[in-house]
Structures are given as C-alpha cells and as structure tokens.
Design brief:
Layout lengths: L3 H21 L5 E6 L3 E5 L1 E9 L5 E7 L2 E6 L4 E9 L5 E5 L2 E5 L8 E4 L8 H4 L7 E5 L4 E9 L3 E16 L3 E8 L2 E6 L3 E8 L2 E17 L4 E16 L2 E12 L3 E2 L4 E2 L4 E7 L4 E5 L4 E4 L31
Length: 324
C-alpha cells in the first residue's frame, strides 16, 4: 500500500491547521507548550502579586531551582512578590518568623510559545528586560536585609540595588548577577556557574567552585577575601582592596593593558602577583584558569551570556494590584 501521498497530504493539512489556529488566536492570550509523550498542550499564563509589610520581613530565602528570579529595590514601603503562574504552577511564597521564603516550581513547562497578547506576563514597566524571570521580589526602599540566602541548580539570581548584611549563594551550574549591592559579606558556592559583580561594596567575600567565571567592574572590599577555583577565570575591573594575592597556573595579569583590537594583553602574563597589605588581601587561586585584575578601567566587558542582559533600564513600580 502506498502511504507516501496520504502522509504528505496529512502533513500539509497539519501545517494549515496550525496556521489557522495561530490566526484564530492572534488577539488572545494563547500559549502552547510541548510535553514529551503528550504533544502540544495549551497553558494558562497569569500574573499574581502578593504584598507584605516591611516590619514583617528581616530575611530573604530563595530557592531558584532551574528558574530565574530577580530581587530588586522598589519605591514603595511594602515587600512585593510578582509571580507568573503556568496553569496554576508558580513559585510558592510565605513568611515565617521574619523570613520571606520563595521557592520556584520544579515542573514549570520548559518551552512556551505565545501568540497575541502577553498581558498575562509582567507588565513592561516591571520587567522590560527580564522576560524570562518568572518571579520578581521587590524590596521596600531603603530597607536593609539581614540575611539573603539563595539556593538552586541550573537557575539564576539577579540582585539589584539592595542592601543586604549577609548574602549566601549556593548554585550548582547556575549564575548570579549582583548590581549596586551593599553589604558586609558575600559567600558564593558553585560548580560550573558564573557570577557577575557590578558596583558591589562589601567588607569581605568568599567564593569557591570548580569551573567558575567571575567577572565585573567596581568591586570594593575592606577585609581579607578569597576566591578559589580549580579552573575558570576571574576577570574584574576597578577593584579596590587593601591588598592582592593572585595565583594561577594559567596567566595572571594585574593592572595590565589590554588591546581590544588584538583581544590580547600587551604584556606577558605571570603565575603570581602580590601587592599591598597581605593580611587583608584579596586572595585569588584560579588553578589552571586565568586571572585579570585591574585597579582602574582597562578590561573589556566579558559578560554577554545567556539570560543576563548588559543594558538595564530603570524600573517603575506600580502600587495597584494587577487584575487577573
């Protein structure tokens, strides 16, 4: 029996059917996901918001799992948590003994195709550059958080314009981005992840992992700090620290000039560099990786990956609850 012609006709009809479906729902908030073994399924996407009094929260505990979560300072006097629900699946949010606990879902659809209106997602004023962040935690203005704890696997965390006394981040293969963050201590543990620091002011930091990439600009440290990795790269501009102790089996470049045209340093690298007060130094051990540290501007931006975005816009808070 010749099945070739029926299969071709069936394929054409399927394509036409999908095209008609997309056209029919072009003005609706219509979302599709593909689940292995079940094919295409519709997904109801909705935005939700919860608010909490400032006095009720002193600590923040976030489990990003494999999702992306953003924490940023807002303009209001309340904590807010914005979540996106996919057919009812969304981050869990609760406050216990002064700690705001936010846990990302484990079974969120991995691939979602949207047609027509996307009003079920965050309004553009909330989330103009971070369309993949399904959870946004908005910290009240001028609030100092006592402890921030972040756990996860392949997910990511963005901390922006917050004051946190102690920040502890544990990610297996995910990433962290800190912008305009002030605090006492930062502790980061990872395996194959990466961390970007931009305008970060700390007393000390402790970073360790396997194949890590740590990059950024404008990092200020006051006390002894350490970064230890078996491989990877530490690439940082405008670093202020009492001293430096840089070691790597690969190349170490300290205050070296970089030629962006050739994409190379103008000077040969070493395996070690020490400067300043060694009792309060920033000690970096990069194993077989490489180190580039400048006390001034001189290194090109080395952070252009994945779900992070180099150009951030200011956010405008809206105090009214969103309608579902």
């Amino acid at each position: 029996m010749n099945l070739k012609k029926p299969l071709i006709i069936g394929g054409i009809l399927s394509v036409v059917g999908i095209g008609m479906m997309v056209t029919t729902y072009q003005d609706a908030n219509f979302n599709l996901t593909y689940q292995k073994g079940r094919g295409l399924e519709t997904v109801d996407v909705r935005q939700n918001q919860q608010s909490f009094d400032t006095k009720d929260i002193k600590n923040l505990d976030v489990d990003v799992k494999n999702s992306e979560v953003q924490v940023r300072q807002g303009d209001s006097d309340k904590w807010k948590v914005e979540t996106v629900a996919y057919s009812g699946v969304q981050s869990s949010v609760n406050v216990t003994d002064g700690t705001l606990k936010v846990t990302a879902p484990t079974d969120k659809p991995k691939l979602i195709m949207s047609t027509g209106s996307t009003s079920g997602h965050f309004d553009d004023s909330y989330n103009s550059d971070l369309n993949n962040a399904d959870t946004v935690i908005i910290v009240p203005k001028d609030v100092n958080i006592e402890n921030v704890r972040v756990d996860g696997r392949d997910g990511g965390i963005i901390l922006e314009r917050i004051n946190a006394k102690h920040t502890n981040i544990n990610l297996a293969d995910g990433g962290a981005r800190l912008e305009h963050v002030n605090g006492d201590t930062l502790k980061y543990r990872g395996q194959d992840g990466r961390m970007h620091l931009e305008n970060v002011d700390l007393k000390s930091m402790d970073v360790s992992g396997d194949n890590l990439v740590v990059s950024g600009t404008n990092l200020k440290l006051q006390e002894a700090s350490q970064v230890k990795m078996s491989d990877g790269k530490f690439w940082m501009d405008r670093v202020q620290a009492p001293g430096f102790d840089l070691q790597a089996d690969g190349n170490v470049h300290f205050n070296a000039k970089y030629d962006e045209d050739t994409d190379e340093f103008t000077e040969k690298g070493t395996h070690e560099a020490k400067r300043g007060d060694q009792d309060k130094a920033l000690k970096i051990e990069a194993g077989s990786g490489k180190i580039g540290v400048n006390e001034h501007k001189g290194l090109p931006n080395d952070y252009n990956d994945g779900f992070y975005y180099e150009n951030y816009e200011e956010y405008d808070d809206e105090d009214d609850d969103d309608e579902n």
